[in-house]
Specification:
The chain has seven helices and twelve strands. 32% of the residues are buried. Strand 3 and strand 4 form a beta hairpin. The protein is globular, with a radius of gyration of 21 Å. It is α/β, with parallel strands linked by helices and 272 residues long. Strands 7-6-5-8-10-9 form a six-stranded mixed sheet. The two termini are 32 Å apart.
């Protein structure tokens, strides 16, 4: 029986979430006020000096019945200039943090208002059936689009299941998860996003992309808030990924004065 290591020292960090929530009571439409349901949300946010000019399509599909079900009293979640969710007032804005390792996956549910971790849980990475080493998995992914899609689906389904279990543990609903961050090594990153891996598997081991990405959770097969994004940290190189970047961020490496050694021991080991 494998034991998942998800415990650790929690550092208190003042939250600065990318998603903000705003609660308000809307006036219902009438023959004298024929503004669309979306326009009512835009106008209410303008009253709060929040300028939004777009609505996530999935949140928009739920909007009209939800406004009437909630008797026009709602809480809107905004990321940048986009409304990503409209829900009942008073729900906790939650964030999902996931570290996808070659062997194991660790997930954390965080209160975005307080920064407190509400639940933590681990799971085996089901891709291990395709090889314990990452190279074997990339070789399988290179065989065909179907094989690559199968590996991708194994990974994202495991993350989605982990999110569901974390919500049960924290007595929360999935639609309360407004934002997510996922890290992993460069190969895990590429397999998870369905990116080509051939150029990564052979010398000089070049990544498809190094820059950080913001991807809609629904496009990855994750069932979170309707318009929630997944932020994926940058890769360093072919075999040094976003998981090591997250280590350096966690210890605030940029501001450490003395010489410090950071070691990430996993299936592979990265050292800074």
């Amino acid at each position: 029986l494998q034991r998942m290591q998800v415990e650790g020292l929690e550092v208190s960090v003042p939250p600065q979430p990318a998603v903000k929530t705003y609660a308000f009571k809307l006036s219902p439409p009438s023959l004298h006020d024929l503004r669309s349901d979306a326009t009512r949300i835009y106008d209410a946010l303008k009253q709060e000096k929040i300028d939004c000019d777009q609505f996530d399509i999935n949140a928009l599909r739920e909007l009209s019945p939800k406004l009437r079900e909630l008797n026009w009293e709602v809480q809107a979640a905004v990321r940048g200039s986009e409304i990503i969710s409209v829900n009942r007032p008073g729900i906790r804005p939650l964030g999902l943090a996931v570290d996808v390792g070659t062997t194991k996956i660790a997930g954390y549910l965080v209160d975005l208002a307080t920064g407190k971790t509400l639940a933590s849980r681990g799971a085996m990475n089901p891709q291990i059936a395709y090889g314990e080493d990452i190279t074997s998995r990339m070789v399988n992914a290179m065989k065909s689009r179907e094989e690559a899609a199968r590996l991708q689906n194994l990974e994202t389904s495991a993350i989605d299941q982990l999110a569901a279990e974390l919500c049960i543990q924290a007595k929360a609903n999935r639609d309360e998860i407004l934002d997510a961050v996922i890290v992993g090594n460069t190969a895990i990153h590429h397999l998870m996003l369905g990116l080509p891996v051939k150029q990564l598997a052979f010398s000089p081991f070049v990544a498809n992309v190094q820059e950080p990405l913001d991807v809609k959770a629904c496009d990855m097969g994750l069932n979170l808030a309707p318009g929630a994004y997944v932020h994926i940290l940058s890769n360093v190189a072919g075999y040094v990924g976003a998981d090591h970047i997250s280590d350096l961020l966690a210890i605030d490496a940029a501001n450490i004065k003395e010489t410090t050694l950071a070691i990430d021991i996993g299936t592979n080991t990265e050292v800074s």
